[in-house]
Amino acid sequence: MAAAQKRGVLIVFEGLDRSGKSTQAKRLVESLNKRAEGSAVLQAFPDRSSPIGKLIDQYLKKEIDLDEHSLHLMFSADRFLKNQMIRENIAKGIDVICDRYCYSGVAYSLAKGLPEQWVRSSDVGLPKPDAVLFFDVSPAVAAQRGGFGAERLETATMQQKVAAVMPTLRDDSFWKTVNADGDLDTVEKDVFRLYENLNREKPFESLEKI
Ligand code: 2DT
Ligand code: MG
């Protein structure tokens, strides 16, 4: 009999703007696919190409205004559109690497002052990450990496608020801190070490609380 197929893992990259999470999420997927073609997929949230993501993209580019409650639910809905894709890949043994997830959703909406319990409830039921890699970048290093972009949430005030909220979402049972101040290759090695230590024997779960 063939050896039982191991499940894939769901890894979420979270952190502030310019922490390097998008670059490193891409690097991890590239290196996994170099080792075994088709063994990992990258999913950015928001997915600006989905029907809902297109509206979010227009909001972020300041082309349209949206009610903040609606926007929060759109970010959640955009993730639920990928619910099945994530579960199917994990079941097939394919790793899913996400650039942002519901923790960005909760952190940004709390930073905007939306009601806490309401904000924390809309992503319940999503696939639970095997690991959230929190990219911890010091303000001095982030500042050296260049100015803010032109999108709606890319302001010093918003970043400070998100920086204050994000660590309060931490759950030590599956969050891991990555020192994001290092150079690209050092951070890549740290991420890979964390990846290799993930436990694929444990059953895959859904998020019961955030
Ligand atoms: P990118 O720059 O990474 O494309 O993010 N955001 C993101 C939210 O406010 N709620 C969410 O649920 C998510 C996933 C963070 C675009 C911006 O959207 C914010 C920055
Ligand atoms: Mg951005």
From TrEMBL:
Q: Its pathway?
A: Pyrimidine metabolism; dTTP biosynthesis
Note the CDD domains from the entry: TMPK (cd01672)
Q: Which UniProt keywords apply?
A: ATP-binding, Kinase, Nucleotide biosynthesis, Nucleotide-binding, Transferase
According to its UniProt entry, one GO biological process term is: dTDP biosynthetic process
Mind naming one GO cellular-component term on file for this protein? nucleus
Give the matching Pfam families. Thymidylate_kin
- Ranges where the Thymidylate kinase-like domain occurs: 13-190
Gene3D superfamilies hit by this protein: P-loop containing nucleotide triphosphate hydrolases
Q: What is its EC number?
A: 2.7.4.9
For molecular function, the Gene Ontology terms on record are:
ATP binding; dTMP kinase activity; nucleoside diphosphate kinase activity
Q: Does the keyword Chaperone apply?
A: no
Q: Report the family membership.
A: Belongs to the thymidylate kinase family.
**Protein name per its UniProtKB record:** Thymidylate kinase
Question: What are the top taxonomic ranks of the organism?
Answer: Eukaryota, Metazoa, Ecdysozoa, Nematoda, Chromadorea
